[in-house]
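Write out this protein's structure.
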Amino acid sequence: MSTAANTGAALPKRLLICALGLLCYASGVAVTKNCELGISPIVSVAYVLSLITPITMGWCTTLVNLVFFLLQRLLLRREYPLWMMGAQFLMSILFSVTIDLTAALFGFLAGWAPPYPARLAVFVLGCAVLALGVFLIVSADFVALPAEGCVNAVVRRTGLRFGTGKVLFDGAMVAVTVAVSLLCFRQVRGIREGTLIAVVLIGTFARHIGERLGPALERHLAAAT
């Protein structure tokens, strides 16, 4: 996060973009979840934990984020100071609340049983909304969500493009979810064809959204500094 970029006239705009990104991100999670084609990769581990414990998926997301804090610290070391970890923790709390609120907002989709193609189309739309949220939060350059912070850390250490790193990260989350599900339930929970589709679509959508909207958004934010 650039201190200079987040002072003066740019700060309110970045806060607004970040808030909009959080809303889009959580809404995409809620929509894809209620299509019952599989949970989004980014919250798949939290979803399984919510089935094991009495904790909501939103707050399980915060528990998973604690691991992401540690991973960023290991990858970035001094480039990931404690104040940034604290800022991400506050962001994580806000994200958890937003997930639970949007889950209630889109709860009417639960048990939705239209023809399969219609559910698949809505699922793809949810992936696009989620990817837009990822793009906005990253572009705000305010405080990254821990998961995206991990992706950024991997990208900085490997030189991968963000979209590519996102696909690999989501794939790793699915693998962990499968392992936990098999260990606790002797069957896979929350992972279906939609999850595997989302592994590819969310990163791909994020990359294309960044290519098309990124330059214009950067110019808009730069004009406010």
